[in-house]
Amino acid sequence: xxxxxxxxxxxxxxxxxxxxxWQRLEEVxxxxxxxxxxxxxxxxxxxxxxxxTRGVGEETDIVQKEMYTFTDKGGRSLTLRPEGTAPVVRAxxxxxxxxxxxxxKWYYIGPMFRYERPQAGRMRQFHQFGFEALGxxxxxxxAEIIHLAWMIYxxxxxxxxxxxxxxxxxxxxxxxYIARLREYLAPxxxxxxxxxxxxxxxxxxxxxxxxVESCQEVFGEATFPKIQDFLCDACRKHERxxxxxxxxLRIPFAVNHRLVRGLDYYTRTVFxxxxxxxxxxxxxxxxxxYDGLSQALGGPDVPGVGFASGMERIVLLLEKTTQPSFPFxxxxxxxxxxxEGVLLSLSRELVACGIPFHLDFATKSLKxxxxxxxxxxxxxxVIVGESERTRGVFxxxxxxxxxxxxxxxxxxxxxxxxxxxxx
RNA sequence: GUGAGCGUAGCUCAACUGGUCAGAGCACUGGACUGUGGAUCCAGGAGUUGGGGGUUCAAGUCCCCUCGCUCACCCCA
Length: 423
Description:
By secondary structure, this protein is of the alpha+beta class. 41% of the residues lie in helices and 21% in strands.
C-alpha cells in the first residue's frame, strides 16, 4: 500500500450518500431554471487566458494569483475557467446572439478552478451553478435573478439566509465616488492596514470591505462617504426600483454600503447571500449586474445580470439538514449458477417494467447477500436457488418485515411495481 | 502567499513523564448457523506508526526537514 495515488490537493471525490445530495441540488436548480425560463448552456472547461484577464479584470486576485493557466502543445495560453460569467458572455458574442437574439436567459452547472489554499467550503476544483440574463438592462431583471436565487435556497431548506445588496454605480458616477473616497481616506491612511494602503492606489473600492479591525473602525464612523450619495440619476433610479421590486417580492434584504465585489465587471447592482453555520466561507451565492463586460470582451454594449452559487457550500448545509434518500431497488440473490441464469433473465423483465435492480452473483452465500442488501439500503431481495427453480417461482424477501413469499413471475413483477409506487 | 493544529490498520481512535506499544472498536472474510440479514461468540487478513534525517542503550512518543490533511488569514461561490 506504499504509493497509492491520491486526488490532487484541493480536489475530492464525490461518492456514496453525498451523491444523492448533489443530485437533489441539481434537480432543484434545473426545476427553477425551467420555471423561470432559463436554458442550459455548457461552455468549455478551459478558455483562452485572455478571456479572463479581460473579462474578470487584470487587477483581481483571481487573475493575479488564482488561475490554472497552461500552455498547450500549440503554444496557446489556456486557463481552466475560474468562474462562469465570462465564458457565457463569450459564447453569447461568438454565436452572434447580440445581433439575432439579443435577450437570452441561460444557466449553467459545472466545475470551476482556482488555485487557493483549501479550506472549509473552498476547494481548488469546486462547483457552481449560475444564472445569466444577457441583453436585459431593466432593474426588474436584477430582481428576477435575486428572486430565483432566493427561491432555490428556500426550496432546498437553507436556513438563516441573509441578502445584502448595494450599488457600485457605473463608469459615469463611480469615478466621482472613488475620487471622494480617496480624498476622505488620504488623511486616515496611517490607520489603514498595509493592504489597504496599497488598495488606496490600485482599487480603492476594495478598502470598503476590508476585514481588518483598524480599517473597520475607520468605516464605523458616520462621516465616511457612501456611494449612494454619488450615484448618477440613472443608477440611483435603477437602485430604487430594484429595492421596491424586492420589497414587493417579500424578499428581505439589507443595504450594505460597503459591499463591493472582487470581479471588475460589476456595475450597479451587486449582492451577496450569506448563511450562518458555514464557517469563514459563508457566502453561498453572489452576483450582480455587469453591463460593461460585453464591451470588455470586444463586443457591443450589452447589459447583463446574473449570479453564481457555490455548490460545495450548499451541500455542506444539506448534509446537516437533509436525509439522503435512497432509490428503490431490488436485490437479486442467486444461490447457484442456474439461479444466476434465471435472475439474469428476470433482469430483462425488470428493465422492461422500469424496476431498478442490483444483481450479485452466486459465489457468495445467502447470508452475504442479505447483509449486503441491507447495507445497500435495499428493502426487497429476490432469491433463486434450486427449490425455487423446481417450483418455477421466485422467493421475495422483505428485509423490513422479514416476511418471505414465493411468487411466480407475473405476480412478482406486479408486487414489485406496487412496492415501487409506494416508495 | 502567511499562521496554527494534526498525521498510528479501509474508518474512528488507544499506547502515563521516550522502555514487550504496534493495539481496540467498526468494517471486511470465514466459521458456530451445510439457503436467510440487523444479535452474540470465535478465527483471519491487513500498518516499514505519512516520508527522510538526527538525538538516545532505546522513538509512534524528543529535534530538524519534507509531504499531506484541517482550520484560519487572504480571497471568494
